[in-house]
Amino acid sequence: MKTTGLHVGEPAPGVAKTDPIIVADHITRRFGGLTAVDVDHIEIPRGAITALIGPNGAGKTTLFNLLTGFDQPDSGKWTFDGSGISGIPAFKVARKGQVRTFQLTKALALLTVLDNMKLGAKGQRGESLFRALFPFIWRKQEAEIEERALVLLERFKLLEKKDDYAASLSGGQRKLLEMARALMSEPTLVMLDEPMAGVNPALTQSLLDHILGLKEQGMTVLFVEHDMHMVRHIADWVIVMAEGRIVAEGDPHEVMANPAVIDAYLGAHHDEDLGEIESETQSAIKELADDDADEVKH
Ligand SMILES: Nc1ncnc2c1ncn2[C@@H]1O[C@H](COP(=O)(O)OP(=O)(O)OP(=O)(O)O)[C@@H](O)[C@H]1O
Questions:
Q1: For ligand 1, atom 25, which residue shows the shortest CA distance?
Q2: Which atom of ligand 1 is nearest to the CA of 58?
Q3: Residue of 141, 239, 244, 275 with fewest CB within 10 Å of its CB?
Q4: Interface pTM, i.e. ipTM
């Protein structure tokens, strides 16, 4: 079920939201002479699924890294749930309830599925001092963490794999594990980085259902994705970036029909034959247009 009534006024870049969970101003991040992110104002609607899309190199991942404290901006301020979190390190951001998924790194792939889950809960209360002073309470907390991990693994159909190395999982199962691990810290905002990348079609629906499930449970979801089918099917709101800036925002269908978005994807090659210069994102836009045409026919 799509969530509507998210914005106030015309859906232009930076438009105000009725109930924003993130409000950010004047964020810039430069790498040498390159300005990777230059966002004047952005608001993420609470309780909805927002897609952040844009061509390769648009600055989506950099913006994700900034908002979650994994990178520091050259300028900018933002709030999460009403409290200022700009410049706060990632583990503190996560404690406040804003988590992001990570690609399963080599090191994590060499841990079991269950250990990966337990790591997702670390940085909450299990500090070493706490452990030393209150071993009894600490053990109780460990037991609670394991219990929560098992419940989540069951929900994500990974329980049978709990003692396997994460490296042995398929691409889709890894994505499920990344999402399940993020949920260990009981977040209010879940940020997913390309949740569909490397997922085979058999697991696509299950992943989509899990993401919709997060919203049903009251969480806010923000994801970066190149897969336009996914954007269209589950996003309530779409924000488009190009060259570090936000170039369009709105409902998925309206955004896809927006000339600024088509321009952002096609860039200087606008008038050329798409067949010759086709890239991942260009073919995605074409697929989407085909989908829309199919829908009109039916
Ligand atoms: N650590 C870094 N050092 C130097 N340049 C960087 C760094 N990280 C990102 N960039 C540059 O910043 C720009 C934005 O990159 P970013 O990865 O944020 O884009 P993106 O929209 O996530 O792209 P993609 O869809 O390909 O993942 C790119 O030109 C990239 O080369």
A1: 56
A2: 21
A3: 275
A4: 0.97
